[in-house]
């Protein structure tokens, strides 16, 4: 069977619902998403319009984008060669945005806050034009600020840099100033700096050549047009069920965050589960699967039908029952809410293990790759909730729930890098 493009690279609706404004210029607008160059990211505007990837982290909107523009996921092109290869870094939970201009960076992600924008302009001599249009590869000051912010985000579990506060920025002033001096005093080589930051300063796990080859196989052949597997009824039903389950995790965590505002709930819901739900929706669309009538001769994929289900409402009765049960537990107390997170992630992993085996047996490589990516996320989320319980004083973490929910790092590899949601 032939693969479909990696699911985190396709489909989805806007995941950031901030204030809106239109770009000026012609009918086609190009933006650049750069931590290092972001390849195969999901770049959308506030109306849900999705941009097409060009090269080197550049993306093109067919029509003027409605701001803010957001980038999610993708791969950080560490060596900046425009290809996914060994040493590159998957970034499925990194969110970049810009409230205006043509660059999505960690710096532009903070500039939507007036006080921080003023600080960046005054303390680091950045014009408004540079804030929203300069990229780390072309501007040593932007690179230095971006690198220090990325280091902070990794070390403090922050997936959305736009949530950083003025107080945090002020605490980083000395480190940022030192990095600006370092980058400005010698040869500024963006590729060398990116590699050193990721490998030496942060010790992040980059892709092996085998992993890069596997990901490239998921990106299609020839002109890059996605190629589809042949799905049996079981796998079509699996995709429909997984959409329900990812929707449940996102909405349960947001509902519990409203009661017990732990950052784990918000970060995982908005930076991961939203993206996971969008990834499954893109597969439903690619295979033209109607979520309530998977084998109907005249039933087709419908984005409108998916969007019609309100928060906490699911077409699958089993998922609806599970949501109701878990929400009833989670609202009881702080501890119950975090324990619910452990339960959701173990349930997800169990289901994904079955689904990966089913997809592999049917040689549906696109589904197997997507499910494997989702499982990696669930492993990380499990440890985020485990850590939050321990901070709360529950020394056993998720293991307090018993053997079923007690996992080891060998069973659930933790690849968060800095340890985070």
Automatic annotation (TrEMBL):
Residues of the signal peptide: 1-25
Gene3D superfamilies, per database record: 1.20.1260.10
Lineage top rank: taxon: Bacteria
UniProt xrefs under InterPro entries: DUF2202, Ferritin-like
Pfam family of the protein (one): DUF2202
Organism: Sulfurimonas diazotrophicus
Residues of the DUF2202 domain: 239-389
Keywords in alphabetical order: Signal
Keyword Signal: yes
Name of the protein described by the UniProt record: DUF2202 domain-containing protein
């Amino acid at each position: 069977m032939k693969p479909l493009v990696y699911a985190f690279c396709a489909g989805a609706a806007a995941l950031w619902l901030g204030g809106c404004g239109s770009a000026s210029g012609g009918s086609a607008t190009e933006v650049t998403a750069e931590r290092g160059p972001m390849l195969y990211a999901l770049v959308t505007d506030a109306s849900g319009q999705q941009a097409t990837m060009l090269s080197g982290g550049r993306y093109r909107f067919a029509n003027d984008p409605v701001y803010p523009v957001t980038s999610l996921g993708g791969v950080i092109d560490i060596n900046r060669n425009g290809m996914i290869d060994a040493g590159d870094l998957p970034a499925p939970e990194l969110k970049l945005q810009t409230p205006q201009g043509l660059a999505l960076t960690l710096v532009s992600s903070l500039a939507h806050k007036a006080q921080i924008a003023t600080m960046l302009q005054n303390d680091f001599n950045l014009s408004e034009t540079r804030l929203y249009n300069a990229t780390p590869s072309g501007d040593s000051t932007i690179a230095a600020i971006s690198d220090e912010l990325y280091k902070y985000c990794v070390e403090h579990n922050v997936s959305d840099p736009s949530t950083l506060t003025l107080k945090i920025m002020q605490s980083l002033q000395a480190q940022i100033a030192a990095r600006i001096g370092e980058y400005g005093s010698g040869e500024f080589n963006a590729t060398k700096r990116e590699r050193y930051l990721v490998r030496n300063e942060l010790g992040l796990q980059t892709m092996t050549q085998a992993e890069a080859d596997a990901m490239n196989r998921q990106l299609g052949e020839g002109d890059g047009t996605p190629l589809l597997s042949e799905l049996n009824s079981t796998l079509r039903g699996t995709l429909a069920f997984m959409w329900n389950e990812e929707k449940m995790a996102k909405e349960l965590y947001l509902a519990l965050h409203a009661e017990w505002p732990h950052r784990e709930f918000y970060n995982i819901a908005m930076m991961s589960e939203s993206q996971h739900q969008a990834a499954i929706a893109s597969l439903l669309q690619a295979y033209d699967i109607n979520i309530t009538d998977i084998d109907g001769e005249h039933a087709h994929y419908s984005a409108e039908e998916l969007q019609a289900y309100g928060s906490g409402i699911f077409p699958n009765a089993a998922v609806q029952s599970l949501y109701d049960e878990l929400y009833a537990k989670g609202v009881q107390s702080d501890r119950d809410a975090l324990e619910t997170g452990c339960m959701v992630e173990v349930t997800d992993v169990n289901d994904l293990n079955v689904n990966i085996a089913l997809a592999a047996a049917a040689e549906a490589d696109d589904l197997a790759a997507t499910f494997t990516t989702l499982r990696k996320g669930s492993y990380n989320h499990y440890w985020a909730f485990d850590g939050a319980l321990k901070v709360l004083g529950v020394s056993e973490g998720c293991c307090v729930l018993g053997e079923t929910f007690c996992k080891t790092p060998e069973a659930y590899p933790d690849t968060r890098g800095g340890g985070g949601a």
